[in-house]
């Protein structure tokens, strides 16, 4: 998941690790907080695999023009995607199996990069996610039916809230699927609400 997100963001241009971490948080919409303890080992692994490279850069280019020279501190390392990284990114966004939609975090990363994903793959991922969430909903409904008489009202409210959240996700996915089928070339804009 992290590999896909990093490669997707590096498609937009070279960036240093600190900025990459901030962009990941924004792009993933709070789905997951990325720590430096997971980001830098991932970058190191991707560097060794030839998916990313350390970009040539002017360290002063990252600073305001009137900033004093860096003394005693290493300049920030700027990462860029390689041709192999671009190939790997396109392979990852084209994956439509359960790995793309069963886990909420992985689905969210795929969704974040749907603009780079083929229309038929987007539809398969959305439909797979909806099936997964519908199974969760059915399990929640069955559990609620079995435990309703044995739980206090607060636990019952918590269960009801969980079921409403899952119902809402199924409706949202259905709307996305309907829009995708109606116009696979259109993608939701920044102002669209689903």
TrEMBL record:
Keywords: DNA-binding. InterPro entries: Metal_resp_DNA-bind_regulator, Tscrpt_reg_PadR_N, WH-like_DNA-bd_sf, WH_DNA-bd_sf. The keyword Transport does not apply. Residues 6-90 form the Transcription regulator PadR N-terminal domain. One of its GO terms (molecular function) is DNA binding. The keyword Kinase does not apply. Pfam families: PadR (PF03551). This is DNA-binding transcriptional regulator, PadR family. The lineage of its organism: Bacteria, Bacillati, Actinomycetota, Actinomycetes, Geodermatophilales.
